[in-house]
Write a structure and sequence with these properties.
Elements: H1 3-17, E1 24-27, E2 32-39, E3 42-47, E4 52-56, E5 68-70, H2 76-79, H3 82-91, E6 98-102, H4 106-120, E7 127-131, E8 136-138, E9 143-149, E10 157-168, H5 177-185, E11 191-201, H6 208-211, H7 215-218, E12 221-225, H8 245-250, E13 259-263, E14 265-266, H9 271-281, H10 285-288, E15 290-292
Bound molecules: zinc ion (ZN) (2 copies).
């Protein structure tokens, strides 16, 4: 049996072992969103079809196959699984992963990983890339990720994944295939780019992070946070750097998304209380588009 086949068998064996680990799989039009988030316990999401993930507060075993991760900020519940993830990929002889992090935290993240390397007397091969709002990361001809400023209690960023396509400029629509090819070969730019925001990840942020990045309201799928809801015992506090259910109510006409995934509820709420409160404040669940995870 080849080495890669052996590795594949081992992975499948261990996937069975991790079946009990709980996270949600949400089928969307163009992709699946898998993950879970609770403040201040863990946040981790991935889009298997795009081979990328957001935040590494936890790492189900089978998520290690995803080679690129975009971190929103360096709070423990969003980065704690980073060393385990890199070590697992090394152990399974997978390519070193690429991790995008807020540029202010590159040094600290390297030190964090360095401490584990010293503890284990081993190495954690990976590429750490610092990014800042305004940056764009080309993933492929079809996919690009943009970086956006968000508002939390530590340096934080959000991301939008765009699908892009080339379209023929209207002035060349009447031309034949060979004519277009000749023009293109002669150096004329015959096409232009169109972009579709497929998925936006807010990370931890006050609503200002959404309001200042209106493309997040337009993405097919928005993964956002709703840290605070109200219950009989708890009225929502206006904590800095987070969102409350009332922030969604105030903005209910802004969401153009096909699906809005709200998560990162504080662990002090029971899931039943979360659902009751949100359904009371937003009875139509934003036209059935709001998913509570
Ligand atoms: Zn958090
Ligand atoms: Zn945080």
């Amino acid at each position: 049996m080849s080495d890669s086949k052996k590795r594949g068998n081992k992975l499948r064996e261990l996937e069975n072992y991790s079946e009990s680990s709980s996270y949600r799989k949400i089928k969307c039009e163009y992709f699946t969103v898998e993950g879970f988030s609770r403040a201040p316990v863990m946040t981790f999401w991935r889009i298997p079809e795009y081979k990328l993930g957001f935040d590494l507060g936890w790492q189900p075993w089978e998520f290690m196959g995803t080679p690129r991760w975009f971190l929103s900020h360096a709070h423990m519940d969003h980065v704690l699984a980073l060393p385990a993830y890199i070590a697992r990929r090394r152990m399974m002889q997978m390519e070193p992963p690429t991790i995008y992090v807020p540029e202010q935290k590159v040094g600290d993240i390297r030190q964090f990983l360095g401490a584990f390397c010293r503890l284990e007397q081993s190495v954690l091969p990976c590429e750490i890339i610092g990014v800042r709002p305004g940056d764009e990361i080309d993933l492929s001809r079809e996919l690009v990720v943009s970086v956006h400023k968000t508002y939390h209690t530590v340096p934080s960023i959000g991301y939008i994944v765009w699908e892009r396509r080339k379209k023929l400029k209207p002035e060349y629509l009447e031309l034949s295939g060979p004519e277009i090819r000749d023009l293109s070969v002669s150096g004329v730019e015959v096409s232009y780019e169109v972009r579709f925001p497929r998925i936006a990840f807010l990370g931890d942020s006050s609503p200002r992070g959404l309001d200042e990045n209106p493309d997040m309201y337009k993405a097919d799928v928005l993964i956002a946070e709703m840290t605070h809801v109200s219950t009989q015992k708890n009225e929502p506090r206006q904590t800095p750097g987070h969102m409350r259910v009332e922030d969604y109510v105030e903005r209910k006409d802004k969401f153009q998304n096909k699906k809005i995934i709200a998560s990162h509820f504080s662990v002090r709420y029971a899931q039943r209380d979360v659902e009751n409160c949100v359904k009371q404040k937003l009875p139509d669940m934003l036209g059935g588009r709001l998913v509570l995870v």
